[in-house]
From TrEMBL:
CDD domains attached to this UniProt entry: GGDEF (cd01949), PKD (cd00146)
InterPro entries: GGDEF_dom (IPR000160), Ig-like_fold (IPR013783), Nucleotide_cyclase (IPR029787), Reg_prop (IPR011110), Rev_trsase/Diguanyl_cyclase (IPR043128), WD40/YVTN_repeat-like_dom_sf (IPR015943), Y_Y_Y (IPR011123)
Domain GGDEF: 910-1043
This protein's name: GGDEF domain-containing protein
Biological source species: Anaerolinea thermophila (strain DSM 14523 / JCM 11388 / NBRC 100420 / UNI-1)
GO molecular function terms listed in the Swiss-Prot or TrEMBL record: phosphorelay sensor kinase activity
Parts of the chain that traverse the membrane: 812-831
Amino acid sequence: MKFRLVLLILFCLAVLPVHPVHASASLEAPPPRFQRLSVDEGLSNAAVMCILQDRDGFLWFCTQNGLNLYDGYRFTIFRPDPANPYSLQSSIVLAGVETPDGALWFGTDGAGLARYDKATQRFTHYRHDPADPRSLPNNSVWSLFVDSQGALWVGSRGGLSRWDGEGRDFTTYLPNPNDARPLSKWVLRIGEDSTGSLWVGTRYGLNRLDSQTQIFSVFLPDPKNPGAISSEQVWAIYQDSRGTLWFGTRFGGLVRFDPVTESFTAYRHDPANPASISDDTVWDILETPDGMLWLGTEKGGVNRFDPLTGRAEAFRTSPNNPESLSSDDIYRLFQDRSGVLWAGSRNGGLNKLSPVRQRFRLLKAQPGEENGLSTSNISAVWTRGDGVLWIGTQGGGLNKLNRRTGEITVYRADPANPNSLGGDTITAFYQDRADTLWIVTSGGGLSRMDIPSETFTTYRRNPDDPASLPSNFLTSIVPAGQGRFWLGTLGFGLVLFDPFTGKAQTYRHQAAKPASLMDDTINALLADGDRGLWIGTHRGGLDYLDFRSGEFHHALHNPANPRSLSDNTVFSLYRDRQGTLWVGTLSGLNRYDPALPGFRAYHLADGLPNETVYGIREDETGCLWLSTARGLARLDPSSGEVLTYTLEDGLQSNQFNIYSDFRAPDGELFFGGPGGLNAFYPAQLSRNEAPPSIVFTGFSLFNQPAPVGSEVLPQDINTLSEISLPYDQNVFSIEFAALDYQSPAQNRYQYKLEGFDRDWLPAGAHRTATYTNLNPGTYTFLVRASNNDGVWNEKPRAIHITIRPPWWQTRVFYGLTLMGLIGLVLGIIRWRTAEMRRRTRELERAVCERTHELSEANRKLEGEIDERIAVQRELERLVRTDPLTGVFNRGHFFASLDEEFAREQAWERRRYAVILLDVDHFKRVNDQYGHLVGDQALITIADILRKNVRMRDIVARYGGEEFVIYMPETSVGEARAVAERIRRVIEEQTRVLHGFPVTASMGIAVKSSEEEGTRFDEVLQRADTALYTAKHRGRNCVVVYGEAEGEREQN
């Protein structure tokens, strides 16, 4: 099907009778190839007033209808929103700058100054307030500048101002009316030189603020002074890498300042000098790393200016060239960190000049222009390195390019002229002498050109001569010795042609003869010295003609043999410097080495951009360059590495043509296609070695973008380290971008969600990762990217994603569930136990029923016994305890002491203490408050005694309002401490409980271990004596028997 289509196209090509035409073009210094971005590509407005790149790598474009944020793929536009007080308040944005703290400032026309917070995506506005002299002087801000000290300078129609760094105050430098040359209020541009002096361009003069004296100097045009500045309007201020200060002016050209003489030199447009700048209005100045100055002009496009020679080269818009500037009015120039030069126009949007698109020189026909190729559809190339390049086209005849002068001469077929070119579709060249060029055509036979006379002799098929060429549709040519040529044809086999005799020997496919040619359509020929000829056929695989035997040997595709030829359609043949044969087919590249059996095939899986390989050429390093149906590929045979170049790299097209590849003697490579001819030296191709920075550009839940300020995204995603999501919002997408603007379409991505993905997932050029139905937990999303040349960043961008569990999957719920399960198990155990008990009771019931009478009698007996025991115990208690206070009574107290002393064999040597306590004025309490209150007080005191003695101590009511305490193994100090504590508690607690103070006096007697013959009643008598002493001393005190009055510690 493809073959019939090729034939149809070739037969339908018109043969136009045109005489040689001379035109001018060049492959040596082609103009820059710009890419246009305007309203159709998403830019908010075609008038670009300012360009800047923030610290994250985003580009910002200020226009006359909105502010644009650009990530290489998409424009985000900021415009006024009456419903949002934090939105931009003017659509006309004239200037922009980033301060050291990362804040972005934008100057507007009519709404003053706007400060943008990237975290919250909110604008804060600074406007002129007539009542505040420290406010911004005017709401039309034309210029913003951050000096070397980090200060923000604002140029407006109200003068030059400096933001004070905090609040809303500005310091404004106003004109001095007494100054002979006052500072102009309308500030256009602000800049700084290496000394720290500030330069201010205005509509009415150039001003300098000296960094040391803080005094302004004004520079104005002076017709009498040739060293004066050439214009009063200064729109650009720039100091280059050599320290030279340049100014762009309105109507005064480009101006250079000499700081020694403080004079100016102007570079102006001179119509008589093509090397002068193209326009006298210079809006902007930019220096590129090569030291050249780029100038944006009002009517002359962009100029590339050499500051050393003063020569300029202008690049202007061309209506017929979509890769030229979109407008000649270039207002802003900027070079981003990836090396892309941006030219913003006042009426044509953006122009992007990427180094990538300049890699490959391109020669093509320009529609509507006579100066250039006859057509861009290139089919053959040839040069001997003598400065002449022969270019064959499909339907456009022969083009001769003089590479020294850039002149192109076109030769066309003319049926009325027998000395003209045989046909306008050319498939191959061969030049055997300096003055003779052989031209293979498709439909016009074989032409021999006599170069000096520019005449042609054509050999065609003669139906009346069977020894003539079998067809006029030829594809390839290889010298065969003795002045003869091997020619490939379209459908008519292989031809050995002798131009001297005009005789042709034809080799055709013969079905009955296996050793004949396999297919009559030949796409490629390659000589194998004097041994044989390699023949690439269209449907019959690869043939080899052995000159000695005259037989054809075949290499065909065999699906069952992976070492066979990968496809039977062969487009190209090439032998490298190592002698290895390479075969380009419809289904991959094949490497053939006679020392090894069969072929080694390279396919898409090996890195090829496309299976169809049209042309093969080798560079100086041994790498192969392959033209395919989807770009140009560079294969390193030693490593297998493949690099691919596409239309984004400056190729004429991603599609190339068969026959149209060539290598010049000096190593220059040529590849042609439907869009023109590419030429390049492989060693001179630049490579983008800078890994791209990565940012996040969006976050979505269930395919709905999450707005900044929401619960999910409280602020811009690039300022967050973690995103937390509830369990029912676990379907999310993260969008990202590599901020390398050379060729964003060629940036590639890999990502991984740690905690879910095991390995990195290749995403190609796709910039979104989506995850669904993730289990609750904490994950880390990682993304990394490569630039257009496959250079990957080593440190991926990361953000943590937390999926919060539902309440029934929380630890609290698990704990409650566990407790419930334990309770359930315990309940089951209790139920089982109760059930077993119930069954036991049922079994026992039968026994109980039989012995009921006995049990009833026994129960009654036991009841009577229990009652007697209870009565006995109660009697015993009444005998032992005081019925009012519950402590031991006096009788049981002495009985307990007898038992105590009886158990102790050496009780006479035992140490103990006795405390006698008497409630002070107890009769008065009974008389004043009643006996019930007095009883309650005694109960309270008894309770206090129980709580403040030791377990082994014995407390008893001694009689009336007296209590006694026996404390074994107790010293004087210990007994006194306990007594004092009891006295204090009684005084404090009875007041709280009864509303009046109740105190107690205590006497203490201690028997030491040395007093062997002392009886207890003697010790008790001592305590009573001490108690009496306490009463005598004023009550509410503790007295120890035998101590002087001065030893009491508390009254």
